[in-house]
């Protein structure tokens, strides 16, 4: 993993020292509302796949995002490998950073890195159908909606009755491919 630089963000591989910032995100009910309904996260009782949702600073596929000017914590981004050619994009930003285009800026940098350096052929992302802000980010970076999945969730949260949307983007083809 490389450090990625955008106009306003520096994304670097996460470190254990980032854990307090990550936990701060999990404690904000508005940040967590589309993930678990906005409830406080109990790291001790989470399932084995929690690393994707609750990084600790040791995950090999999570980048910490900080403002390039001043180094303030913005959030985290991940490109979670599903196979050698497929990865899932994820991100979480502090509420104070919402609405400024930073999610799209960081996500676009990760897409570029994933296609150019990690060799992914396709990158996917999912969110609740009612999470319009996250859907706009996915569309802004060139992802397209491919399906909506309805499910009978064991612990439904408000909006889950509308399902989960899947977006994807394929590696751009170069001339001659």
TrEMBL record:
Q: Which Pfam families match?
A: Acetyltransf_3
Transmembrane helix in keyword set: no
Reply yes or no: does the keyword Cell cycle apply.
Answer: no
Q: Which UniProt keywords apply?
A: Transferase
Enumerate the GO terms in the molecular function aspect.
acyltransferase activity, transferring groups other than amino-acyl groups
Which intervals hold domain N-acetyltransferase?
9-172
PANTHER family, from UniProt?
GNAT FAMILY, PUTATIVE (AFU_ORTHOLOGUE AFUA_3G00765)-RELATED-RELATED, N-ACETYLTRANSFERASE DOMAIN-CONTAINING PROTEIN
Q: What is this protein called?
A: RimJ/RimL family protein N-acetyltransferase
Please name the source species: Shinella granuli
